[in-house]
Design goal:
alpha/beta, Rossmann fold, six-stranded mixed β-sheet, 20 helices, 55% helix, 7% strand
């Protein structure tokens, strides 16, 4: 049972249920108390021990069912394919045509005795090394290897050999057996992949979405991306705090150290370090929230406000044509609700960067200084309105740095109504930002610059 619980804990961790080694030991103690006789009581006891939040309890239920329901051949074969076959004469019909092992398997399926086949499938899976599966692309290989070990290749050879005479009813039954074995091998590999690689059933899709263009992300994957943003932000915050603790030590202050250790006869028990008073820096985030950029704007805003512990001074501005400061919206509401509200209220109208820069000049130009970082997110497509490049130059002259995040590749700059070739010279850096990986790299650099 201790080995089984350790495997269950690993599967739960892959299903986004945080199970520590100590909690695994607690679960083992719980199992010893409640026993194994009542599966329902066991499930409830383990759920109380291992799953803490409502979301974790949902993941626990799914993973528990998969883990303890991973027996092969759970779906019985269809009787119709064996209805006209005489069980007593089936062995004689197959004798000399297929191996004794395959003949026995066909007879088990004809008699609905699938439980006896489960150990054979699991042995084939172990021999194929299914535990070594690491990627989605590995699944067809392992499924084919397991099915071949169960006899599908042998059935292919028998059914395609013109020298072997078979009754038409038997041919239909053998074709179904071949299909059934392949189907069961595929189902078994799918379940092992879900348990050991992708317990949530969405890993491959989410991994692809992490690299994909956020402007084309389907709505039903936005929650997964929001969770990914939160995890990335948490990691960056922890990294920033470690760097800050190291930087806070600075150089040893000899004078203060000697002065505070006079009482110890000169023994240096109480060390003092020279500390630099950090200058408060403000991040001004200007986001184009029109339809073409809204997908990226959503996750940039979520990322910035998930980093509020290390970027406490953030002012946010949203525009499509007219610009407004939306900092108070994020203060009143949670980050996700605020993002939805901003996109709905300010994401309408024709994009006009010139007008937005003029509005920003009125709203915040006087507050920008040499400690300010201005982030502009947008594709620079101005619908042929006046670009007002001189306003961006004015902002750049006052700020520490202006960083432009553009979801479009550099090859698209200057095409159609794009004004990026005119805006770019007034930016400290212009970088591509179309995926969550791009956004993560940018956030890492932004946080590091605050240390």
């Amino acid at each position: 049972m201790d080995v089984t619980l350790a495997r269950l804990s690993r599967a739960l961790r892959r299903a986004d249920v945080a199970v520590s080694p100590v909690e695994t030991m607690d679960a083992l103690a719980v199992v010893r108390q409640v026993g194994l006789d009542d599966p329902r009581r066991l499930r409830q006891a383990l759920a109380l021990t291992l799953a803490k939040t409502v979301e974790e309890k949902q993941h626990f239920e799914t993973c528990f069912d998969r883990f303890f329901g991973q027996l092969a051949f759970s779906q019985a074969p269809k009787r119709s394919f064996f209805r006209d076959l005489d069980p007593a004469g089936l062995d004689a019909a197959l004798a000399g045509k297929v191996s004794p092992e395959l003949s026995a398997r066909v007879q088990m399926l004809a008699g609905q005795r699938t439980a006896a086949l489960a150990p054979a499938l699991q042995e084939a899976a172990q021999a194929a090394g299914v535990d070594q599966m690491r990627h989605l692309r590995d699944k067809p290989h392992y499924a084919a290897a397991i099915a071949a070990a169960l006899g599908t290749d042998e059935l292919d050879a028998v059914l395609s050999d013109p020298d072997i005479e078979l009754d038409s009813t038997l041919i239909g039954a053998l074709r179904y057996v071949r299909h059934y074995l392949r189907e069961q091998a595929q189902d078994y590999v799918d379940l092992q992949y879900q348990l050991n690689i992708d317990a949530s059933g969405r890993k491959a899709i989410v991994d692809a979405a992490l690299k994909a263009n956020l402007t084309h992300l389907p709505k039903n994957y936005q929650q997964d991306m929001q969770r990914a943003v939160s995890r990335i932000a948490d990691r960056l915050c922890k990294s920033h705090r470690r760097r800050r603790r190291r930087a806070r030590r600075g150089q040893l202050d000899i004078k203060r150290t000697l002065r505070h250790n006079v009482a110890y006869d000169g023994a240096l028990f109480d060390l003092h370090w020279r500390r630099q008073k950090p200058q408060k820096a403000t991040v001004f985030a200007i986001c184009d929230v029109s339809g073409s950029v809204a997908g990226v704007a959503r996750f940039l805003l979520l990322m910035l406000y998930n980093l509020s512990d290390v970027l406490p001074n953030i002012r946010t501005f949203a525009f499509s044509s007219e610009m407004a400061e939306v900092t108070d919206v994020f203060r009143r509401k949670g980050a996700e609700a605020a993002v939805e509200s901003v996109l709905f209220d300010w994401g309408k109208g024709n994009t006009d960067y010139g007008r937005a820069l003029m509005d920003f000049r009125k709203l915040a130009l006087d507050d920008i200084n040499r400690q300010s970082t201005v982030i502009i997110l947008g594709d620079g497509r101005n619908n042929h309105y006046e670009a007002r490049v001189e306003r961006l130059a004015e902002i750049s002259a006052r700020a520490r740095q202006v960083i432009w995040l553009n979801p479009e590749p550099r090859e698209s700059w200057g095409t159609g109504d794009s004004e990026m070739t005119r805006y770019a010279p007034h930016c400290f850096r212009v970088r591509r930002c179309s995926s969550l990986q791009d956004l993560s790299r940018f956030a890492d650099e932004l946080v590091a610059a605050q240390d």
